[in-house]
UniProtKB/TrEMBL annotation:
Physiological role: Mutarotase converts alpha-aldose to the beta-anomer. It is active on D-glucose, L-arabinose, D-xylose, D-galactose, maltose and lactose.
Protein family: Belongs to the NAD(P)-dependent epimerase/dehydratase family. In the C-terminal section; belongs to the aldose epimerase family.
Protein name as it appears in the record: UDP-glucose 4-epimerase
Biological source species: Diplogelasinospora grovesii
Subunit record text: Homodimer.
Record keyword Cell membrane present: no
Record key words, sorted: Carbohydrate metabolism, Galactose metabolism, Isomerase, NAD
Pathway: Carbohydrate metabolism; hexose metabolism; Carbohydrate metabolism; galactose metabolism
Listed EC numbers: 5.1.3.2
InterPro entries recorded: Epimerase_deHydtase, NAD(P)-bd_dom_sf, UDP_G4E
Biological process terms in GO annotation: galactose metabolic process
Amino acid sequence: MAVGTVLVTGGTGYIGSFTALTLLEHGYDVVIVDNLYNSSRVAVDRIELICGKRPLFYEADVTDEAALDAVFAKNPAIDSVIHFAALKAVGESGEIPLEYYRVNVGGSIALLRSMTKHNVTNIVFSSSATVYGDATRFPNMIPIPETCPLGPTNTYGRTKVMIETVITDHIEAQRNNNKKAGQPYEQWNAALLRYFNPCGAHPSGIMGEDPQGVPYNLLPLLGKVATGERDKLLVFGTDYASKDGTAIRDYIHVCDLAAGHLSALSYLRDKKPGVRAWNLGSGRGSTVLEIIQAFSKVVGRDLPYEVAERRQGDVLDLTAHPALANEELGWKTQLTMEDACKDLWRWVENNPKGYRQDPPAELLEALKAKRAE
C-alpha cells in the first residue's frame, strides 16, 4: 500500500526527476506531468533503473487546465502536488518576460484551479532564493533567513514571488471558507521552498541534469567545458565585494534538495500548518572561482574561463540560513560541494550526450549489484 500518491509537475526535469525518485524510494506512488520543453522522457526510464519502480508519465503542459483535469480524473488517488514546472533562466526571463509570466504564473493558477476541482489539498512549491533579491541591502541578513523581506531583482524572481502570493491567498481562502461553512479546513496546506543553487548528479552516474539547450547554471556549464563541448566558461563580474571579486552562492546537492521536498510534504501531511516557507540550502557560501577550482580538481586539470560583464539582476551573495528547515523539517544537507562535483563529473564524463545515449554498461552493472545487496 502506497504512503500516498503525488503529482509532480515538471517531473522529468532536473530537480523534479530526483524528487520523483526520492518519493518512489520512500513508498509513494508518483504521477509526472511534463511538456518536455527542457527535459527528456528518458528520465522516467532512469528513475525506474535506479529504484525498480516506474512513475506514471503524462506529456502535458501545466498551463493547460483541461489536460490537468484529465490527469486528476484518471488518477483519483492523487492527494498532493509538488510543483516544479516553470521556465527558469534568469537572463532569459528579462528578454521574454511575458512568456515567463504566462508559463510560471499562469501555469500555477491553472494547476491550483484543477487541484481545487479535484479536492487535492496539499502543494509543495518549488520557489527560489531569487525571491530575496539583494539581501545585502539590509543589515544582518546574510546568511538569508526566511524573515528577510522579499525584493527580487529580475523577472524570474518576480514570477516566483507572485506564485508564492497566489498560493498563499488561495490556501488561506480555502481554509477560511471551509471554516465559515463549518467544514474541515486543515487539509489545505502549502510549503514554499526557497532554494539556492542545485547541483550534482546521482552517485550511480546514470541520472543527472540534461538541459536541452545551453545550460544557464555554473556547474553544468563547467561540465560542458570539461568534456570539450564548450571552450571556456564565462565568469560574470569580478568586482563584487567578496574575497576574490566573484559572486557568492549556496550550492546544494540535488539529492539533498529532493530529500527536502519529501520532508516538506511529510510536514504538510502530518502537521497541517497552512502555508509555511522554508529555505533549503547548506548555509555555506562559495564564490564562482572557488567552484571552478573545486570542479577543476575533480576533473584533474584547470578549466579555462573568461571574465565578462555582470549580468542584469545578479546580486553579491545568496547564501541560505537553513536553521528553520533543520529544526522544523528535521532536514539538513548531508552531501558536500566536493560530493556534488564528483557526482557531476561522473555523470558528464560517462554521459556526454546526456539522455540521448545509453548509459555505459559498467555503470549499469554496478547499479544492479548495488540493488542486489
